[in-house]
């Protein structure tokens, strides 16, 4: 659809879209986002939600998602004991105000954008400090993205922002791929050499449109400053491409996914550079396409950018993006709920890309607070869902019809728009022709005026001469009359007469020339006036045509929006229908009994069923802890976090310059704890983190992780009964049930079941003289359990 | 600018079907590479299943720095470029190699030579990259090393608890390498220094076997309770690693070279390379899929001949012994052996009696699984300055390695719903060298 609009109409469209976007955003603000999310989710569900999370499940989940660690046991006890019916909201706000929230956001976005690449040009600590300061200030994410994508590293204050480009060595293909993946949710790598073979929506033109924004940037190592890396940017370099399959070729200027190509300003060659390229010189173009990239994003009306950001924030707390993997946005990999994703993207933009307020809404939803327990009996779900199949099939067919109708309407509007655009273009051409004709006449008129002037001046001179001669002759004639006998004087008089005659004779042609040139000048002026009138007429005609075009354009935009809506509804209807189909299949399996299908097939289908209902948000997903969440959780259990907190508090009390503002004090203390324990996270990152430059959200399990948990000296030390660790606390409790409570509340943030409590008592009773050993075994077993590894 | 991902249009069509088929909802789980029974077996390349029938292994010997082909596999004695060493006949009539490899000459009938290699890359890092990845390095396109590819595709479905991708290094050891790219850390190399077991494979002294067993049981009980609430492919993969870890700890002696008989230590030699070859034999025998041994230092810009005399002398014995042992123990037919380097060395001899980097015409030695015995493929000219017959490159080699262990090298991995070709789709195997 991208070729549909001429480049010169982009400005009109951008204005129209901007107005529309704002209007829609403002119009829907009456209801909180979390209510809207739940409404959209409920409408898309087949067979209903499975149940809500218990208080302990909720607290553990929200602590891990907002502060990056399990709740300290004191918080667990306090929360469970809190009788306030609104306590979940209260605690959400408390967690969002905690300095650990800022830390967790900075870490999450560092991992998301740098993907644990090894530091190259910008120290990781500076970059993380920059992110930390940005999230502490609740900087709009669009602004953060703008800074990151346009920084050149030269300004020391903004240098950390340049890490994204610099640490990728400004490699244009790597940047195109990573900017596409991480900021627009599209992995265009395969579209580099040809339209994507598997994804119809990824075109070579998309890849090169994005490439055009970054391929003028170059890595510059400053020889005068220890080869410090900076970004330079050239003022030239276009992107042209040829398909390796079809040999079709094309070229494109800078263009973002889902947007129009932007027009670069036209600069004279001598104005193209602020600093011209040269040996050991960092080129700085006057017009920076990289800066333009930042501006395009920060304007906040790019669909792909907004949706990607909303999707990634959703994934951050919901465990998985609506689009998953998050960098594979396209029609064949539809979002779990297309209507919701659209709503989230719009809402995020309308609230100025503030992540904190947005995340608050997400964790307030019932969808977020779902239980993770799969039903023990799927029959009611399957029955309801399969009973709805006929209805859902009909709804799907209807939505398919609506989608086709919307498509047809769009095609029609699009054709009309094209027609009007063509007529505008014709009229525009006519104006241009009139303009050039008028310019021609204007030039002729000015030429004619210029030609008359010198001849007229000469004529004037001659006339003056003539008058001088005439007056001299008159004076002579009077003298002759008076003297009568002076023959010399008579001679003189006749000579004067001769001069006079000669002058009179010369003046005739001159007068004729002036007359001729004057006539030419007058006719040129008249003709110019005619052209002026023609131009006016052409301009009026154009102006008259622009309004209908703008109307057609906005009608087309409206039709496109309606088509997209229809398409989103269709996607949701299709998914519901497919889920019901699966439920119907499963009903057959259940009816046949467990022996009806082979075990692997049974398991595979059960996994698929559970997966589908998780995608509907009927069931909470299992969320493997990130390396950092795992590390901070274990450090919390070890007592190290508490110990360093007490230390920092003591230290602050002794200091006279300690901040009096409690929030400021809390931030300082968190910084101090972080600085002390940061190093302990390295081993978790090394073992539980994916490789540098690889997507970090993919789960994997390796034997060296298990070996670390089994035998790692650090794990042993953290779970040893000392320094306020969980095992030290267990050891200090006499009552075996109390030990069980302390264990479960600390490690799993929940009270033990009766059976679990009994098992703890039994283990303690079996070796009464070895309590220190037993408490360690108990704590280790829970830390190494699946429940600990996967957030509730 | 070529796209290294996907360019064979037939593959694209095939992969598209797989891709769309995988979108039923399990696409995202495919990347886990699970080995939990048959649950997700249908997501793996079909060829990998065939492989389970006969377990194949791969041994790579990486000659660091750039082995001189003229002092090893493709000597040119008596020519201005030939250097001082003679060539000697081998166990394959008509095939001669450098006199620096007398013991290897005796096992040549098990091996084959590829003498027409032209890789056009004279930089150490880039040369090593393309030889181990089968493609040139491209920042936007991170791809797995041969060891990770083999560990993934040749992984046996029962799983022996041992890592599938091992690099034997001179010291240290235990850490996970960063060489598996999109295949994930599961297939990244574990480095073993001198027979040190993998990191954390030893139970702490203050934890008795009995205590460990007890806490492991408590862990299993806790899992049982949780898994009755929710069980997914991820939880299965996670719990499986603990059982794997226990089996690995039980089999720790696999990494313990002291368990090999004294006379074998003597046969392989007391130096690093000898011990590493013996360790490689032990690992391969114990079912580890991929083992890489390194030998250095071949970057002989000066005193090429002196260095090669020493280094080849060290290499020759253990290598020939290892080949003969693999043959004698019935492992050779199922183990692909590759002796490679990042490039060869210049035919021209410089002022310091050295040879410089040379990738235009050099050799690798292959043998074992799927490869012909005693063959020589490709030919360089009289002075070894150009390939005149059977020219191949790193892409052909990579396809050949995959084909040799029974894989279809035009297959694709399914990476989270994305089909990714195993090898450069623009290249193909060297059919002539395959058995």
Concise description?
With 792 residues, chain A is mainly alpha-helical.
Describe the 3D structure:
The complex is a heterodimer of chains A (792) and B (435). The model of chain A is unreliable at 1-28 (pLDDT under 50). Chain A is 66% helix and 4% strand. Chain A is mainly alpha-helical. Among the domains of chain A are: 390-596, Helix Hairpins (Orthogonal Bundle); 623-791, no CATH class. In chain A, the strands form four sheets. In chain A, strands 1-2 form a two-stranded antiparallel sheet. In chain A, strands 3-4 form a two-stranded antiparallel sheet. In chain A, strands 5-6 form a two-stranded antiparallel ribbon. With 435 residues, chain B is α/β, with parallel strands linked by helices. A nine-stranded mixed β-sheet of chain B has the order 6-7-5-8-1-9-12-4-13, with helices on both faces. Chain B has a two-stranded antiparallel ribbon with strand order 2-3. Chain B has a two-stranded antiparallel ribbon with strand order 10-11. In chain B, β14 and β15 form a beta hairpin. Chain B is globular, with a radius of gyration of 23 Å. The two termini of chain B are 35 Å apart. Chains A and B meet through α10, α19, α24, α28 and α29 of A and α1, α6 and α7 of B.
Secondary structure elements and pairings:
The complex is a heterodimer of chains A (792) and B (435).
Chain A: H1 10-27, H2 33-43, H3 55-67, H4 73-81, H5 87-97, H6 99-114, H7 124-136, H8 141-150, H9 163-166, H10 172-184, H11 204-214, E1 217-222, E2 228-233, E3 239-242, E4 249-252, E5 273-275, E6 284-285, H12 289-298, H13 303-318, H14 338-350, H15 355-364, H16 379-387, H17 389-483, H18 487-592, H19 599-615, E7 623-624, H20 627-638, H21 640-654, H22 662-677, H23 682-688, H24 703-711, H25 713-718, H26 726-732, H27 736-747, H28 754-766, H29 771-783, H30 786-789, E8 790-791
Antiparallel strand pairs in A: 1-2, 3-4, 5-6, 7-8
Helix pairs in contact in A: 1-14, 1-18, 2-14, 3-5, 4-27, 5-15, 6-7, 8-12, 10-11, 13-14, 13-15, 16-18, 17-18, 18-19, 20-23, 21-22, 26-27, 26-29, 27-28
Chain B: H1 9-21, H2 46-53, E1 57-63, E2 87-89, E3 96-98, H3 102-106, E4 111-117, H4 124-133, H5 146-153, E5 165-169, E6 173-176, E7 190-193, H6 209-229, H7 233-250, H8 262-268, H9 272-285, E8 290-295, H10 304-328, E9 335-341, E10 344-345, E11 357-358, E12 362-368, E13 376-377, E14 379-380, E15 387-389, H11 394-404, E16 412-415, E17 418-421
Parallel strand pairs in B: 1-8, 1-9, 4-13, 5-7, 5-8
Antiparallel strand pairs in B: 2-3, 4-12, 6-7, 9-12, 10-11, 14-15, 16-17
Helix pairs in contact in B: 4-11, 8-9, 9-10
